[in-house]
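Q: Entry one of two.
A:
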Amino acid sequence: MLDIRRLHMLKTVATRGSIAAAAQSLALSAGAVSQQLSALRHDVGVDLLRPDGRTVALTEAGRVLLEHADRILAAVEEAECAIAAVKGTVGTTTTLAALPSTVARIVAPALTALGSRHPQLTVTCLVTDQAQLRELTLGTVDVVLGQRYHHLTDATPRGVEVSPLLDDPLLVVTAADQGDERPVALRELATRDLAVPPPTTDCGQAILRACHQAGFTPTPRYVTADIAAQLTLARAGLATALVPRTAIDPTVPGIRTAPIEDRPILRLLFAATRHTETANPTTTAVVAALRTSAGQGLATHLPPA
């Protein structure tokens, strides 16, 4: 009989690209993972992995087994959700992955509310802007607070369920003594010193595409994915920044914000979970808290668009 843990290891190795990377994410030694995969190879009687440069790749048999493993692992999670639904109670542990720019306005209030409503639940929060949905599909996290820019194609993986939270526009941020709060045409930014994320990021790509549609190619003076650094440069009068509204603390002095009037750049903030036919009471509670927090933050804590 196939071992579920070994199937999960095969999926993790295939996704991470190497035994060493898979072992690190599983908090195991590379030797332990290799041993379990060797046992899985013995169980099925055929090679499942092959060397591919410095990484490993699935053989044809490995690809076939992984397709079945995905369905098996999904069925196991479905059974766990069904039992949790019968119990009708929120569990004791779960893991949330969230973008750094959402922590202050959405995540922290949501976790505070969850702590009051479900004191038995411990939420481990992974704050990262890297590949959250991949971690969701691997089971490393249970809920993702992610983003998708409206300029970009939806790339939600199969088996992931997305619940929209809010549209979060980028605002034009300058020093408080520069400009005014009137809406800004994107074309006006063509001659300004900009502080923007690298073009390899989703936000950087969205800004670049919007500027191209407005008829110009931006020439950033400062390139950083660190929103705090962007705001610092804007506050100092060194640059104009384009920053998501939820990432701006309106109580911090020294900055002025204005909306983009003609070609708004929007990111959709969403909560994502693995799709199951039966709702999991724990992840449902987390998503509900995020949705409530997002709505309250939009209404009471953010500068106007």
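Q: Entry two of two.
A:
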Amino acid sequence: MAVPAVHERPAGRADGRSPLATGSELAFVAQAVVAGAVFLATSGMRDDHGLGIDPGAFSALPVVFLVVVLAGYLHRLLFVLPVMALARGLGGGWWAAPWAAGLAAAYAGWAAADWDLPYGWTLLWIAGPGVLPVAAASYAHHRSLGWTGMAARVGAAAGVALLLCAFGAFLLERTGIGAYEPPRLERERYAGEWIGGGGAYRLRLGENGEAAAENLPLVAPAGVWDACSGAGTWTFERGRESGGLFDRARDRVTLRIEGCGPMRDWQVAGTAERPELFSVMGDPEDLHPRYAETLHRP
């Protein structure tokens, strides 16, 4: 009696999926989670313009998860599938990471040329999320780790990275190392032209205390599109020194523009080389989200 032939799946495809694709998806999601944790842990090193982290942002976690899933699918289309095609056509699975790096270089060249971006930084931003997951999956595939082995390794690495992020955030909060400090400039540095909203509104501060506003957004409780133009005066107030180790009091500019009503102060942000003025829009008790309008030198 003839025995029917048994057609086995190719090695590494027992579940009908490529180990390279599966491992890349796992590594990409873990990398996105760790990147988010690093962003939160280093928030004190950036200027939050007095807004901090809005607790309501955590309600957007389902949307963030959906964005990560869509980004993972985009990574599969742009990196995993082309690398798998190259592996089938040219052989040599160990070259998966260099092939992915070549793809990243090509994508970076296209983006830099089309959007006039610096090539070096563009390459780093594309290669980070693009190449590392492919390299991790290729390593796991050649070590024959399988789905469970890959998940265990990725989970352990992500767990360690998250613990380091938590410990780093604790150190930054307790020691203030690398914490953002607003610039301390002399009054005359603020005299001159300031623009915001892509040039939609302007503010001129004169050396003798005169001020002129053009379509300046109202920072007192007002409609979203309310703006004001007119002449008035401005005063400069140095941030009060609290005497603490990590004092973050900001210098501020107070405007009094005729016909514009009461206005909140514009506080100092940015750096000494590129100073900014900002004011937080909205009411803390309002349901609408608060945001910061910024002015900078033209």
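A: Comment on entry two: Residues 61-90 form the longest helix (30 residues). The radius of gyration is 27 Å.
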